[in-house]
C-alpha cells in the first residue's frame, strides 16, 4: 500500500514501513531506542516486530500493565523514571507498540520528556490503526475522565502492519469497526455501504481508506475547531456510556467500539428529531450496528448516571453539552444543543 | 516601556499590560479565569493584581505550596483536579502569578489540560521576569532532576510589572541579577559593564534589555538547536551545584542566581583554559560576581557528588556533558567537551 502523508509525518504500511524506520533511525542518529509495550504486546507483537528492526542501536524495552485503567499520569511517571534510569537523553527515540492506551500514553510521555523526544507509533489493534494512528492526539485519563490530560503532538512516523491483527480477538476487531462506520456515515457513504453489504471486504482496504479519511479531516482542521469535530459523531453519548460501564462494578466493560456504536445509533436518532436526518437512514445505521454488535440493554435506572458523565465531556463549554449531528449522510451540523429528555429518548430508541 | 513581541505573543509592561489583558479576555470570550498562586504571591501579589483585572468573568484562585520542592507532577495533578472540580473547560484561561515555579508549572498544567488551554504569565520575581517570561519553556522536576518533564509552549501574553519586586527580598533580586550578568557576558557586554560600574542603574532598564536579548536569541533558535544554548552559560555547573545543595540536608539552599553565578566563574575559567578566553576578563567576571554574592566555600569532599549530578544534565547526549564556553565576551563556542579534572580545577579556582 502507498504511504499516506499526514500533517508532518508519513503513515507507512507493511514491509516498506520497516525499511523507512531503519532509514529514520540511521538519519537521526538516535542514542537509544526505547520500546513501550504492555504484557500482551510484549508477548505477541514484540517477537514479530523485533526481527524487522534493523539497527545496531541500544534497545531497551519498557513494559506497562495493559488496560484503560492504567492510562494515567502515575503510569507516565513510572515510564519517565524508567527512561531516566536507563540513561535516556534528548536524542532517544520511543517506539510505541500496542493499542490506543500504549500509543496515546507513549506519545504523551515522549512529548514531555526533556521537553520532547521523537516517537514512532506502531498501532497493533484495528481501533488504534484507524483512529489513533493519525491526528496527533496524545494523552491520559484523569480519574474517570478520558484523555483529560494531553497534547497535540506528532510522531516521526506511523507504521501500520495488519499482520498484528492476528494477535487480537474478534471482539477487538469489532471495536475498531465502529470507527470505520463513523467515517462512512459522516464522510464517505461508500465505505459504510461496503461494510453493510460485504462483511468479507478486505480489511487492508478498510484500514487504508479510513486512515485516508481521518487524515483529510485532520489536515483541514488539526486543532478541532470545526470540521474535525465530525470525528466525535457517536462519541458524546458513546464516551459517557463507556465510562459508566467502566465505573459500574456489576457490569462487564464495553469495548470502545461497542459503546461508540450505541452512541451512533442514539445520535442518529437525535439527528432525525432535530435535523430531519432521514428515518430510513437512521434505521439503516441501527440495523448495521445490531448486525455486528450484541444488543446491550441500557437500564432506565442508569440514565441519570450516564447523563452526569456527559456533563464532563471535554467538548463542553460553559456547561453546555455540544453534539455534532447529521443532516444527512456525509452532511453534518456542529455544536448542536440537545435537551436531556431527547438524550433519554435516544437511548430508549436504541433499546427497542 | 514599549511592548516586546516574542515568537507568537507580546510581553507588555506596567499599566499598558493590564489594558491589554482586559482586551484579550474580552476578545477570546473565556468561560472562567483561573489564577495560580502560592501562599506568598496570594498574600502579597494577588491584592496588587486583582484591582487591575477588569473583567466580569468568573474568577477562581488555585493555591499551591511555594518552593522548588513542589515543582513536580504531583502538584500538577492537584491543580488539574482543582480546575476540573471548579468546572474548567477548553475556553478557560489560566493566569500564573508568581516566580519561576508558578510560571513554569502553570504553563505546563495549562498546556496539557484538555490538550491545551490559554495561559498568561505574570512573573513576580526578577528571575522569572528576565528568564522565564520569554522562551516558551514550561515544565516540572522529576525527583531531583530539574525540568525533566515539560514542553515548549507559549502563553497568550506576558505581563511584566516591576511593582511586584517590592514584594520580594534583596536576596531574590540578586538571584535574578545572575541571569542579567549572563546576558551581558554572552551577548551584550555593555549590559555587563553597566552592572559593574553602576549598581544603581534603573532596574526597569536592566529588565527591558534582558528580555529584549533573550527574545532575540529565542526568535533565532526557539528549540535550542544552536544559538539558544548560550543561555545555558554558567548553568551546566551551576545547576549541578544548585541541585547538590538542595539535596544536602546539612547545607542551606542556594538561590538559582547564587549557584549560576558560581557556575559562570567556573565556566569562564574552563573557557580560559580551553579557548584562551582572556584572563583579565575571567578575573573581571569573578570580581563582579563576588561583589554581589557572598562567597560559598565549595568543599573538596562534595566535588564527586556535584560531578554525579552533572551527568544527568538535560543537554547531555550519549553520556557526554556538553558545555557552552566563551572565546571572548559576546563570542561563544557550543558543545565543548570538558574533562572531570578541569571541572574540579574550575571549582578550586572559584574557591580562591
TrEMBL record, chains A, B:
Its EC number is 4.2.3.4. Keywords: Cobalt, Lyase, Metal-binding, NAD, Nucleotide-binding, Zinc. GO terms for cellular component: cytoplasm. Residues 62-174 form the 3-dehydroquinate synthase N-terminal domain. Gene3D superfamilies: 3.40.50.1970, Dehydroquinate synthase-like - alpha domain (1.20.1090.10). GO terms for biological process: aromatic amino acid family biosynthetic process; chorismate biosynthetic process. GO terms for molecular function: 3-dehydroquinate synthase activity; metal ion binding; nucleotide binding. It comes from the Bacteria. NCBIfam families: aroB. Catalyzes the conversion of 3-deoxy-D-arabino-heptulosonate 7-phosphate (DAHP) to dehydroquinate (DHQ). This is 3-dehydroquinate synthase. It comes from Polaribacter haliotis. The lineage of its organism: Bacteria, Pseudomonadati, Bacteroidota, Flavobacteriia, Flavobacteriales.
